[in-house]
Design goal:
- The structure is a single chain.
- 51% of the residues lie in helices and 13% in strands.
- Helix 3 (61-80) runs parallel beside helix 5, helix 5 crosses helix 6 (199-220) and helix 10 (313-322) packs across helix 12 (342-355).
- The protein contains twelve helices and ten strands.
- The longest helix is centred in the last third of the chain and has 26 residues, at 258-283.
- It is of the alpha+beta class.
């Protein structure tokens, strides 16, 4: 079972996946299997119909208004974006914790490549998700004791790729309207098309559907599309992190001994912090939203979520243009891509990316 989540860390938008093997087959770790089965079952038992929550006089009016908006977006997704018309995101779950899942990422000490977690149907991804923070910490400590770099991230929403009717989670209410609406579009896109063992393809496709869908949503309501100031900042910061990852990757392949790599690793991290301050003060002197993240301990694993899930967004924008902005034709083209062998698929995506002008918009408005 695959959980997609969007998280905010000091203003940083990250897209990640958590994969757990519930109802999809045997799990090598039976305790983990039991844990995630219990966690998913608990969510299913707590679900309430959104319409009933809205109608309940005890429901906070602000929550009711946002849930009403979510249902308008849910209908728009199926009617206007040709996304699946099912019961996903027509239920609501009130949690008594800040996150629904905690993800544990791990890398070798001298590698920027994730220790993969592989499951039936979903394939291999870069992390393992836990419904309990303490169990996530225990899993992380076990990996750390084995010599791995580890990172734990709490996440507020999840999806099962249509295996169950996924609910809206109370933790999602911390998002603004565009993120709430966009997440619904994103997750339904995954239900429509998903390729095993190709996270960049899956996420880039769904991110395009999310972004273009939100634009069309605003136009349908006669609303002005929000400026992309935050996204530009996120992209700039992400590029700084990706540069750090590339520098570390080069260091780890240098053939240096472990002592030299350990020293070089810390030097690169400190240099990144210095470059960040220069970038911030030059471009956004009054905006310190990323300071807390930069000040925290940084290792290979903390870098994993960045830039992994938007690699081919511009390629899908080009594909959407080729489809004349028509969703059924676009999805047909995406399905054709999905059937190609991975190497051939990536070559096609590169060609699509090259066809985009450097200044091209994310999609046709």
């Amino acid at each position: 079972m695959t959980f997609r989540i969007r998280i905010l860390h000091s203003g940083i938008r990250l897209i990640v996946y958590t994969v757990v093997a519930v109802v999809l087959g045997a799990c090598a770790d039976l305790r983990y299997y039991a844990h995630v089965t219990h966690g998913e079952s608990a969510l299913l038992l707590q679900r309430r119909s959104v319409s009933k929550v809205i109608a309940d006089s005890a429901t906070d009016p602000k929550l009711a208004a946002r849930l009403k908006l979510s249902q308008e977006a849910r209908q728009f997704a199926s009617v206007k974006l040709d996304l699946p018309d099912n019961r996903s995101y027509t239920y609501y779950v009130q949690l008594n914790r800040p996150y629904v899942v905690w993800n544990v990422f791990a890398t070798p000490r001298f590698s920027v490549d994730a220790v993969p977690q592989c499951f039936p149907i979903a394939g291999c991804v870069a992390y393992r998700g836990w419904f309990d923070e303490q169990k996530a910490k225990e899993g992380a400590e076990k990996l750390k004791a084995e010599g791995y770099d580890v990172y734990i991230g709490g996440v507020p929403a999840y999806s099962t790729l249509g295996w169950f009717s996924d609910p809206i989670i109370s933790s999602m209410m911390r998002w603004d309207d565009d993120e709430l609406i966009g997440t619904i579009f994103h997750e339904l896109a995954h239900q429509l098309i998903y390729v095993k063992d190709d996270t960049p393809f899956n996420e880039s496709y769904a991110m395009f559907v999310e972004d273009q869908g939100v634009r069309e949503w605003h136009r349908s309501r006669g609303e002005t599309v929000a400026n992309n100031h935050d996204q530009v900042m996120d992209d700039g910061f992400t590029q700084l992190v990706l540069d750090l990852r590339e520098r570390l990757k080069k260091l780890y392949k240098s053939g240096a001994d472990q002592e030299a790599m350990a020293t070089g690793k810390q030097r690169e991290i400190e240099d990144f912090r210095a470059r960040y301050v220069v970038w911030r003060d030059k471009n956004y002197p009054n905006d310190h939203r990323y300071d807390a993240w930069v000040a925290r301990p940084i290792n290979n694993a903390t870098l994993l979520p960045f830039g992994l899930y938007d690699q081919w967004v511009q390629s899908f924008a080009a594909l959407f243009k080729q489809a004349g902005g028509q969703w059924p034709d676009f999805y047909a083209r995406v399905r054709a891509l999905a059937k190609q062998p991975k190497t051939e698929r990536e070559n096609t995506l590169r060609a699509l990316l090259k066809s985009q002008e450097p200044s091209a918009a994310m999609a046709t408005d």
